[in-house]
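Throughout our pipeline, every protein is held as a single compact record rather than as scattered files. This encoding replaces a full spatial description with a residue-level series of whole-number codes. The remainder of this section carries one protein's record, kept here as part of the documentation.
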Amino acid sequence: MHVATFTRSTPDTAARVWVDANGNVTWGDVATVVNPWDEYSLEETIVQAKAGGGESTVIAIGSDLHNDALKHSMAMGVANALRVEEPTADMNDSLVWSALAAGAIRKIGAVDLVIFGKESVDLATDQHTYQLARRLGWTMLSYVSAILEADYPAGTIKVEKMLEQGKQVVSARLPAVISVMKGINEPRYPNFLGIRKAAKATIPVWTAADLGIELPRAATAILGFANPPERDQSSEIINAGDLEANTRALVDRLFEEKVL
């Protein structure tokens, strides 16, 4: 059996991101990090591959910017890593992204489960996960908070999904695509030996030609980036006395500003 997952390098959520004079998005000299949501999908990939006695592979779609995330994944314990890049394609478009991702999964072959983190923090989207499942013709299980049972020889999986109203237990046939939530596990820290091994690893790069696919036309286009307009902000510290006086003064100011 084989479990695959996808990851990407993103700016740290605490980093200041802006558009420079050339219209490019930058975060200065701050190092990228593995997409925070992927910490959980990477851990679950390692756990499931070990439980099923199979292989694990992590994939990144895009430029060599994402090599750091792949190295981090291998340092955690994912067995294999690869990157898919098509220089002539707009890989920011989710249809193009999912076509490349589906091609990679098919080229690997015999994949039983694909695990995603909830979303990508830099793009704030998860539509590519659903598009991948559709291209593969596999069941999509989103917002998974626990994998209750995974019988790989029988080709079945049972998961607990988070809903607005509570939780739902769902069973499905494998292969499947799932997206996992924070709290499904406790991601491990890479150890020294894992870091050394990952540092020496050579990451293969596949193109659309290697995958034997013809990419769809991008449905979206990035016209440009711009910084949000600067806002004139001021602050006021209320110190009218005790808690009750401070509360009354705050409410009065909110009414004056027509916030309430």
Observations:
- Residues 125 and 171 are 25 Å apart (CA to CA).
- DSSP finds seven helices and 13 strands in the chain.
